[in-house]
Design a protein that fits this description.
The complex is a heterodimer. By secondary structure, chain A is mainly β. Chain A has a single domain, classed as Porin (Beta Barrel). Chain A is 11% helix and 43% strand. Chain A has a 16-stranded antiparallel beta barrel with strand order 3-6-7-8-9-10-11-12-13-16-17-18-19-20-21-22. In chain A, strands 1-2 form a two-stranded antiparallel sheet. The longest helix of chain A has 16 residues. By secondary structure, chain B is mostly helical. In chain B, a hairpin with a 2-residue loop joins strand 1 and strand 2. In chain B, helix 4 crosses helix 5, helix 7 packs across helix 10 and helix 9 packs across helix 10. Chain B is elongated. Classes of the chains: A mainly beta, B mainly alpha. At the A-B interface, helix 5 of A face helix 3 and helix 5 of B.
Chain lengths: 499, 292
Amino acid sequence: MRMGTHCRRLWGALPPGKHLVAAVLGLVFFLLSSHQDANALPAFARKYGLRCSACHESWPMLNYFGQKFKDNGYQLMNDRDSPIWQNPSYWPVTFRMTPIWHRVSTDKVAIDTYSGGAINGSTVARITSSGFDLSGLDLHTGGTLEKNFSFFLLPSSDNTGSFHFETVMARLDNLFGSPWLNLKLGKFELDNLLSEKRILTLTGNGGVYQLYHFIPVGDGNVFGQMGDNQLGLELMGHSWDDRTRYSAALLSSVDGNVGLPYGNAYTGFFTVSRAFDTGRLGVDRIGGYAMIGEAPTYYRTQNGGSTVLAGSGLGNKSFSREGFYGLFYFGSHVDVTVVTQHGADNAYFGQGYGDLIGGTAVNNNVPGNPGLPAGAQTPSWNGVLVEPHYVYSPQLIFIGRYETVRMSQQANGSGCNVSMSCFGPNGTFTNGAPASNFGNLSTYTVGFRYNPFMTSRAGFAWHNEWNWLHQDGTGALVGAPVGSNVNTTELLTGFDFDF
Amino acid sequence: MRRNLLKWSLITGAAAALALPLTSSAQLTNQDLAARIGTDAHVGNITGHAKDAAPPYRRYCVGCHGPLGDGNGENAVWMPPPMYQKPRNFQLGIFKCRSTPTGTLPTDEDLFDAITRGFDRSNMPQWNTLSKQERVDLVAWVKHFSPRWANEKPGTPITIPPEPEVTAERIKAGRDVFARVQCWKCHGVQGMANGPSASTLTDDLGAPIAPFDFTEGSRPKCGDTDRDIYRIFMTGLDGTPMPSFADNIKPEEAWDLVFYLRTFMKQNSKEKQMAKQLGLKPVDPNAPAGQQ
């Protein structure tokens, strides 16, 4: 009672505005002090009885053991993987959702100006919004249909409840008794060392790997999206201990969109890696990847050119993404992942030819089109991603990330020698070359995830994150220095849970 | 009044004395463990330290084996025998897979191999994804749960003679050994784990346990090479009804038995083909001794 009175006095003595800080600190103290051991994650943990920390460095990011489990087709290879060994009531389903509070602030947004109740012009301003929000809903179901036949199905909705199939795949595992031969068909995540589907961050810009989605400003190619799940066939193999891994995938260049909306173009994705036992440091992995493909640059039209025919894509042009990656452990608490990328798109993509179906491209290279402007060239870029983690315990992880992408060659090479004034509205090209840094991107993300408990029936993380993203020269052009830089920040806190 | 006091004192004392052996392992405390945190393990040129194994044990092992290593992790209840086996109680210091004679402690290499290999038909996976150093640290951690390591040395690994050439005669001789030492009583005459004693078996803690079914296609728990199988019946699987036959089977007979057991296994082998050519029939439990 006395204590309560004392606390109320203290609380009352706090200056206005400090209450929130005190409440947050109190919550942190409560959660940290209510420490429990970490248990297993729902769908697979229920099946095998392992803690989630066995497979996840921090849920949902896999560790080496979890990667091996996945590579084996969601099997421990203990001769009890077949569903016939499970309790008949076992249902391999996990639901995941994330209620959050976040504050997003973006500058250089074009807005109208008013005078006397009428629009009299435009300017740029910083727009800041904050409030409570929801993520979408994920319905994970996966496992084995029989020994060495695995599957994964993930219907996923956005935060309005609109569903799509994020992952639908079946896999023949250990063909001919060899872990080197596994065949997967469907829509699935590419075999990236650093999985975007298992990313530990949630903000709009920090919740994806920019490197996996980068395309130059005005570029019409949307197919080189390493982070998006893709439709195709994957041959994957690994050594018995998963030290050596390879993957080769043949994909439709549709960026995971069903119904063949674009045409007849294919992309290949290849990766190989090798892990090394480095004693007290841990087991480190290095590898490389390449994504090489084609995508259409124009489409047949109808009705005098007003209707673009889906599936009629022609004029396939090439693109590529390639790089190295490494995962380095420094004992049981610290690790760093590094991914590099060199990317290039055909000059036609650089001029905006490409995805008219999705509405992001500005040109359609129909017969009679004058083609590439003089000096047009292949846009190319280099990028790097560095993501360190400090794993205090399986229940508490601190996350940092720095990503940067630098244009090494802009799409247009001539016709304009005044850096930024070459650009028209919305980042499209008018008649010349942009500055060499146009579209360069940098982003920092820091945060932590705390799991006060995780049982074999449910998982829960208190997630906190801050992200800052900067891009050169892509600010709105109205009433502001042409091509000014854009900065976006986001602060997010929320509960990430599954069951 | 005094008589009552005496009576209850006697009853309480007797109960305490009876309960002591049953509860002594469960009375291990964090203080006991802290006192043994200096336990080491040696595998090859790597030295593992129990004090370094707390993070990996907590991350990977504690869910089944429990914080005190007694096999009572929160998931243990979901591993009902005989389909699964309860997680190992490290406090007892009794291990199935050893290179050492029955009743003795295993070597550090034995524990290292067990962690690396895992156990088929159980929830113990292969932990070969961990670095060697982490695994040797975990060996030291496993040892620090049991006072046996403080008082005893591991046994001396048994000597396994070089594997002889497989011949039809050796396979037939192995069949005779199979009949003589009555392997069929548990494993069945065709190795299908359906012998007359199979359904009655329990482990040392009283939990039901099934004999190994050679025909199922699974790997034997303690390794699937010929040397591993030889070692299994010459050391026994401590804590289970599978005894050591080191005193009943000569080394050359042990190899014969290995070859005969291979004929049961699902995997194709030279022994299996030879048995087929020989038209080898299962042992007859009712045949007089030496007349199989």
